[in-house]
Each structure stands twice: as structure tokens, then as C-alpha cells.
Amino acid sequence: MYCEQCGSELTDELAFCDECGALVGDPLGTYDEDEYSADTWYERGIGYDQEGHYLEAVGAYRRALDLDREFYPALFNCGLDLNVLGRYEEALALFTRAVALDPGDALAHMNRAIALYGLLRNTEGDLSYRRAKELKPDLVIDGQGDVVTIPGERVV
Questions:
Q1: Which of 85, 102, 127 is the last residue of a domain?
Q2: 69 and 93 housed in the same domain
Q3: DSSP letter for each residue of 52-69
Q4: What DSSP element (H or E) covers 92?
Q5: Which residue, 89, 94, 115, 133, is the most exposed by fewest CB within 10 angstroms?
Q6: C-alpha atoms less than 13 angstroms from C-alpha of 141 in its C-beta half-sphere
Q7: Sequential pLDDT tens for the chain (156 residues)
Q8: How far is CA 97 from the centre of its chain?
Q9: What domain range is 73 assigned to?
């Protein structure tokens, strides 16, 4: 079996394509297009994230975005997971959209910088990093490329 989106070969047990994150199975049991909203897919993505299943989370967030293109939390979390997976081009596209939707979101600028650094586009990454620091001076990237905020703040 092959993914209809990207043509990659699939294994039967997958709910989402390993390459592009497209929905290829039914992770929620009996899938009914009308039954699941963007919020439902977003919550499913959160569940996958909590289990460390980042690829499945990307697929769920993309499904949420298919239903609501401007669903900011799904957009943001999908970008986070793509950064974790090392899929920096895709993450960059999402964080560029996030910055366009909310130019004041320091975390979006910081995660955009992480994607740019992952692509070795350091000059552009530095610009995004500086913008994030202007918006939120206590925001830093640790040695592993994770965003760290001041204690007690929640990162989306």
C-alpha cells in the first residue's frame, strides 16, 4: 500500500504516513468525517505528543489544519513536532505562517529560528532569534535546541 499524498510505501499498522504525516488509516476507530472537528483532531494530537508519538501527532494536527487552516494551536504544535523530527523545512513553513498570524508571539519566532538553524540558515535564524528576544528577553534556546522560558511559564 502507498500513501496517496507522497507515494511512500506504507505498513498496515500505520495510521499516518511516516514521510508526510498524511492520514492513511483510522486512528480513532470508525472514522466519520462529520464526527471529528478540528478541535477533536487537535486533542488527539496532544494525546500523541504526550505518548511521544510525534509523527502521529503531526498527522492529527495536519488533519485539524485541513478542517481549520488558521487553527493556531494546531499550527504551532505541528511545527514543534516537525522540529523534533528534524523536518525543518516543513517546520519553517508552519512557523513562518504562525509569525504572520501573530507577529507578537515570541515562541513562534524562537521556533522559527530553531528550524532555520536546523537548515543551517544561521543568518536568518539569528534574525528570528533576535526578534524573539526583543519580544521576550528571558527566552533562550538550550544546548539541545529546546526553547526554555522563565520558570513557571507554559510552553505551548
A1: 85
A2: no
A3: T-HHHHHHHHHHHHHH-T
A4: helix 88-101
A5: 89
A6: 22
A7: 667 667 777 665 546 666 666 666 654 444 455 567 999 999 999 999 999 999 999 999 999 999 999 999 999 999 999 999 999 999 999 999 999 999 999 999 999 999 999 999 999 999 999 999 999 988 776 655 555 544 344 444
A8: 11
A9: 1-85
| Per-residue CA distances from 81 to 44, 46, 50, 114 (Å) | 14, 11, 12, 12
Rounded Cα gap, residues 127 and 116, in angstroms: 10
Q: Can you tell me which residue has the cell 501573530?
A: 102
On whether both 4 and 79 belong to a single domain, the answer is yes
- Positive or negative CA dihedral for 20, 70, 97, 143? negative
User: Which residue's C-alpha cell is 486512528?
Assistant: 27
Q: Are residues 16 and 62 in the same domain?
A: yes
Of the three residues 64, 85, 106, the one that is the final residue of a domain is: 85
Q: Which three cell numbers stand for residue 34?
A: 462529520
